[in-house]
């Protein structure tokens, strides 16, 4: 048990190292940074000496124990690897050699991979100004005490931790694969339902022939006459298959424009553009907000609800068939694409009888509910898996592993 292990100051097993290097204007330097949450060192940038303001940098060698004074309280601890050998750090990164006859480097790193160690570092950090706040000075760091079992026991603990960490990583990998497979099931179903081979049995017509398509209000207009303020939908509110209504803004319009832009339940909402792979993004409005209108970068598509199920049309537009059309027809710039009303009206829709449309929607809803259920389960599983390793580490350093 940990009660039998001596607690020793870090100063007993770590020795400060300083390898100062005077900056030469014509030399190149790989500057190191330290990830938070004990995720290791990285090459932050490569600079030539003329770009470096400091007069001195400090060389890091493989096997050094390094931390960031400013972010020790966020787990900025690391052991330098061979990739970090010969890189440089500022004086905000104290560096230490490890007495490997007394402490295993992995044991030390795992000890500082724990939130409780970061909280202790926070309690020892000091600073009187915003710039120097929460600095963990070397003397405070070296005074921190760690439980120190014999070296063989440290290595046994590390081997056990690595074994459990590998199992946790494998479980996380399987969870990610299950989430991807759930999405693939839904994508496969859409591919099957909206394949050209399947749809050729149905009538086809352009969207412009069966729908009233209109963009919304332009923001920032000069208005003359009586006005009213109404809630309106922005592009950010219209997502792929759902609405994000957390933030709703209002816009001023003329009183006599109310009916022109008012959204009705059953309207299909489509964004004008955005990322290339998100063309055809949209959803159906079901009257979620009273007296709501939409801005000009959103198309409102209104159909006869006795003949067309808007959820079916929205699913068709967002299907691989629909996305392929909009991606080919759109105007594209770097990473962005837009569609206009003419292109939207020219989109060829395949429409079975209304009952068949509703059957397709019901099937998609059923699959979506199953996928959503799997996603919620995956979120819970992910949270449980994420909590496992910290729990293992806490037990390890209490002598319970």
Concise summary:
This protein is α+β, with helices and mostly antiparallel strands and 401 residues long. Helices cover 36% and strands 23% of the residues.
Structural overview:
It is a single chain. Helices cover 36% and strands 23% of the residues. It is an alpha+beta fold and 401 residues long. The protein folds into three domains: 2-148, DNA methylase specificity domains (Adenine-n6-DNA-methyltransferase TaqI, Chain A, domain 2), CATH 3.90.220; 152-183 and 354-401; 203-351, DNA methylase specificity domains (Adenine-n6-DNA-methyltransferase TaqI, Chain A, domain 2), CATH 3.90.220. Strands 2-10-7-8 form a four-stranded antiparallel β-sheet, covered by helices on one side. A hairpin with a 6-residue loop joins strand 4 and strand 5 (41-48).
């Amino acid at each position: 048990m940990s009660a039998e292990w001596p607690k020793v100051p870090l100063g007993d097993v770590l020795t400060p190292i300083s390898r100062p290097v005077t900056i030469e204007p014509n030399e190149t330097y790989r500057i190191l940074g330290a990830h938070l949450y004990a995720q290791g060192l990285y090459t932050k940038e490569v600079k030539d000496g003329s770009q470096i303001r400091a007069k001195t940098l400090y060389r890091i060698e493989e096997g050094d124990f390094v931390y960031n004074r400013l972010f020790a309280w966020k787990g900025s601890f690391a052991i330098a690897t061979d990739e970090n050998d010969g890189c440089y750090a500022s004086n905000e990164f104290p560096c230490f050699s490890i007495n490997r006859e007394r402490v295993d480097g992995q044991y030390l790193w795992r000890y500082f991979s724990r939130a409780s160690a970061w909280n202790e570092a926070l309690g020892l950090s000091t600073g009187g100004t915003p710039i120097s706040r929460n600095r963990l000075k070397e003397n405070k760091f070296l005074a921190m005490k760690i439980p120190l079992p014999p070296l063989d026991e440290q290595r046994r603990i590390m081997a056990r931790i690595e074994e459990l960490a590998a199992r946790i990583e494998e479980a996380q990998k399987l969870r990610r694969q299950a989430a991807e497979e759930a999405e693939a099931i839904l994508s496969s179903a859409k591919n099957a339902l909206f394949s050209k081979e399947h749809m050729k049995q149905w009538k086809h017509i352009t969207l412009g022939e069966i729908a009233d398509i209109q963009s919304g209000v332009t923001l920032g207009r000069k208005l003359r006459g009586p006005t009213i303020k109404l809630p309106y939908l922005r592009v950010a509110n219209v997502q792929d298959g759902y609405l994000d209504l957390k933030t709703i803004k209002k816009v001023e319009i003329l009183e006599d424009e109310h009916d022109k832009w008012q959204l009705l339940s059953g309207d299909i909402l489509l964004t004008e553009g955005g990322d290339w792979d998100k063309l055809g993004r949209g959803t159906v409005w079901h009257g979620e907000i009273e007296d709501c209108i939409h801005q000009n970068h959103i198309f409102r598509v209104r159909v006869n609800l006795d003949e067309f199920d808007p959820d079916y049309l929205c699913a068709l537009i967002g299907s691989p068939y629909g996305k392929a059309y909009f991606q080919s027809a759109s105007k594209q710039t770097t990473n962005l694409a837009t569609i206009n009303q003419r292109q939207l009206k020219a989109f060829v829709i395949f429409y079975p009888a209304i009952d068949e449309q509703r059957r397709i929607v019901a099937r998609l809803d059923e699959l979506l509910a199953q996928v959503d259920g799997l996603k919620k389960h995956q979120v819970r599983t992910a949270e449980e898996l994420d909590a496992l390793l910290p729990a293992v580490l806490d037990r390890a350093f209490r002598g319970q592993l």
